[in-house]
């Protein structure tokens, strides 16, 4: 992954980064509030060696620097801690004193700094004062040669003991800054990991690679689709309507030698928008001057009649059961669009759709309409769609962007090929219109210039399709 991939993932899964930052900041805040404030008192020692000349001064300086490194360990030694703990004002044991002392030798100097950290400001000062006193005495004892009264190394306190006004721990600003940075890194890592483990199809290129079939169109997400049919009449220029027009045009040229008269619209799993897509495509085909029939062959969860606001209690199953003729159950929706609802729900949908009566019905309908769009159930839960697709001119496989997995698409394609059904292509539905994976559509230009529409070459003059409820009627003969 390059930098642009990381930016794309961060924009797409920004909520994961935000959750990680908030969680880490919350933990840091809780830890900071519950932490005991610690105060630090520092004292600085100057280590010198008595000398008489320049040469002695140079050698004495080297000697003092070597001694400073040794005295750094002496400051944190158990022996010195026991000496400091003898001061009863402290109320600390030797181990407690030793854990509160830290020492640092200044590089290339003869300065040595000791820091005492304690939860009490006053006790920190007392420990530092006792430490400075005991350390000076201890060094003089160690550095005084036998038979001499003057030590070879002299220790002077040049700074301190000084206690900082603010606690050295906790530091809220630093803690929150570190927590925010760690949260961003953790959130980005989680987002990248989730993106790498995400096997859903998100792009037309990915869908084409998995399905082994061309992606005929990509349909953007539209929240109004679930409530009813889109306005796909001649004045409809929404992003989804334009994409459906592109799908209609591309279907004409999928195979010019074998034009598609009967088209099955299906998907791998439920909830991928096959019914709304089938209805929209049928409306646009009727808008283009064709006599179109949309058949609801989903005998388990039919949606077409409810979606178009028609009566769905009689329909396909009524005809197959011999209780009515096609002329009695086909309903007209607009000037050139006809609808054959599913009818009552049978106990054996697969057997009914694979019967000879169904084959004879499809043959009869081919002679009555220019285009037949069949809305079928998903391929993975049931075999109904594969049965119908084997008798149609081709099938259109829908996949929902960011929802349908690659394995589901591959299994659906195998189900169609197992019955020698003709897979015309795939449609990537519900593409994002905002965010990192957003698609850009030409109709945005039309929206900016007042909704003017430039007709494409080959398009016939548009016809009104969406009609008032009082003009929707059941017809005696669709021809």
TrEMBL record:
Residues 450-479 are annotated as: Disordered. Its main location: membrane. The keyword Nuclease does not apply. It is a multi-pass membrane protein. Keywords: ATP-binding, Cell membrane, Membrane, Nucleotide-binding, Transmembrane, Transmembrane helix. InterPro entries: Bact_polysacc_biosynth/exp, LPS_length_determ_N, P-loop_NTPase, Wzc-like_C, YlxH/NBP35. SUPFAM superfamilies: P-loop containing nucleoside triphosphate hydrolases. GO terms for molecular function: ATP binding; protein tyrosine kinase activity. The keyword Transmembrane applies. Residues 1-86 form the Polysaccharide chain length determinant N-terminal domain. Residues 470-479 have a biased composition (Basic residues). It is found in: Cell membrane. It comes from the Bacteria. One of its GO terms (cellular component) is plasma membrane. Residues 450-463 have a biased composition (Basic and acidic residues). PANTHER family: FERRIC ENTEROBACTIN TRANSPORT PROTEIN FEPE (PTHR32309:SF13), TYROSINE-PROTEIN KINASE (PTHR32309). NCBIfam families: eps_fam (TIGR01007). Belongs to the CpsC/CapA family. This is Chromosome partitioning protein. It comes from Actinoplanes siamensis.
């Amino acid at each position: 992954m390059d930098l642009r991939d990381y930016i794309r993932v961060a924009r797409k899964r920004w909520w994961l980064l935000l959750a990680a930052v908030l969680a880490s900041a919350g933990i840091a805040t809780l830890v900071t509030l519950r932490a005991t404030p610690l105060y630090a008192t520092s004292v600085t020692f100057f280590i010198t060696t008595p000398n008489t000349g320049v040469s002695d001064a140079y050698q004495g300086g080297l000697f003092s620097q070597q001694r400073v490194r040794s005295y750094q360990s002496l400051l944190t030694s158990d022996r010195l801690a026991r000496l400091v703990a003898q001061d009863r004002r402290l109320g600390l044991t030797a181990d407690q004193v030793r854990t509160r002392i830290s020492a640092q030798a200044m590089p290339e100097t003869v300065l040595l700094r000791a820091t005492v950290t304690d939860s009490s400001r006053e006790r920190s000062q007392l420990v530092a004062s006792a430490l400075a006193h005991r350390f000076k005495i201890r060094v003089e004892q160690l550095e005084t040669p036998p038979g001499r009264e003057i030590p070879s190394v002299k220790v002077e306190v040049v700074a301190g003991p000084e206690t900082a006004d603010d606690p050295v721990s906790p530091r809220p600003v630093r803690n929150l800054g570190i927590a925010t940075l760690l949260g961003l890194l953790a959130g980005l890592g989680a987002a990248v990991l989730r993106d790498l483990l995400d096997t859903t199809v998100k792009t037309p290129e990915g869908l084409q690679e998995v399905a082994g079939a061309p992606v005929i169109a990509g349909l953007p997400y539209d929240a109004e689709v679930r409530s009813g049919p889109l306005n796909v009449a001649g004045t409809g220029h929404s992003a989804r309507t334009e994409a459906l027009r592109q799908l209609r045009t591309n279907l004409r040229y999928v195979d010019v030698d074998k034009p598609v008269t009967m088209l099955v619209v299906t998907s791998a799993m439920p909830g991928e928008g096959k019914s709304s897509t089938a209805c929209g495509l049928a409306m646009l085909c009727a808008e283009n001057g064709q006599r179109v029939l949309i058949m609801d062959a989903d005998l388990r969860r039919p949606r077409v009649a409810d979606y178009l606001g028609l009566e769905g209690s009689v329909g396909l199953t009524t005809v197959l059961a011999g209780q009515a003729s096609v002329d009695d159950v086909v309903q007209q929706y607009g000037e050139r669009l006809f609808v054959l609802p599913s009818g009552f729900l049978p106990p054996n949908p697969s057997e009914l759709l694979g019967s000879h009566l169904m084959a004879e019905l499809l043959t009869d309908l081919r002679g009555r309409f220019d285009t037949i769009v069949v809305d079928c159930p998903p391929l993975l839960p049931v075999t109904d769609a594969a049965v119908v697709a084997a008798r149609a001119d081709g099938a259109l496989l829908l996949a929902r962007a960011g929802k349908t997995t690659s394995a589901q698409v591959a299994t659906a394609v195998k189900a169609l090929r197992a019955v020698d059904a003709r897979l015309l292509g795939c449609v990537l539905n519900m593409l994002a219109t905002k965010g990192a994976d957003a698609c850009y559509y030409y109709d945005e230009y039309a929206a900016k210039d007042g909704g003017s529409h430039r007709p494409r070459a080959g398009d016939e003059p548009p016809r009104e399709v969406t009609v008032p409820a009082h003009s929707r009627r059941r017809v005696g003969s669709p021809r």
